[in-house]
Amino acid sequence: AWAADLDEGRAVRPASWTFKSYREHYRDTQLALGYPDAETVKKKARFLKSAGRHLDGIQIQDITPADVESCLAKLRAGDSPSGKCLSGTTLNCISKAMNAMFNHAEECGIIAANPCRKADRPQCDTEERSALTLVQVSELVAKMDPADRFQRGVVVMAETGARQCAVRLCNWSERNETAG
Questions:
Q1: First-residue to last-residue Cα distance in the chain
Q2: Which of 88, 102, 115, 178 has the fewest CB atoms within 10 Å, measured from its CB?
Q3: Which ranges in 34-76 belong to alpha helices (H)?
Q4: How far, rounded to the nearest angstrom, does the alpha carbon of residue 162 sit from its chain's CA centroid?
Q5: What is the DSSP string of 113-148?
Q6: What is the pTM of this model?
Q7: pLDDT digit string, tens, across residues 84-125
């Protein structure tokens, strides 16, 4: 590990972090800071756990771009937690999550360089969704039944821009329907 660290022209403090211990530390740090929100942090943690299937036992400073690419190739081939081949879009999300975690480790001086920077990032292979127009949102809201809890949540998201996780945390029994 030290040879690779010195090849980058920087000396970093030696660490005993494995991929698994650092991904758990990274998740806990993100949750403690409240960034960006708990649901997003948990989703990123699930992506990192998928990568951990192939990287958990490796010291974080020893992970190379080839290790990252090998991990992603195995996940694409079906050696994933679900046993199914993962899409390019899911692999892209896993790669982004690893990149963010390795950036954090680099900023903390745990690793000399982020191995994701030199690894090929998988391409998204699902069509990007487009946002609804204002007319479409108005039509959707008009069709919703405010007596239905799920549909009421859809209306709140459409009218306020609130995220799904924030709406799920609403205590509907405390909301004064007459006040709006």
A1: 60
A2: 178
A3: 38-55, 65-76
A4: 19
A5: S-GGGGSPPPPP-SPPP-PPPHHHHHHHHHH--TTS
A6: 0.68
A7: 999 999 999 999 999 999 999 999 889 999 999 999 999 888
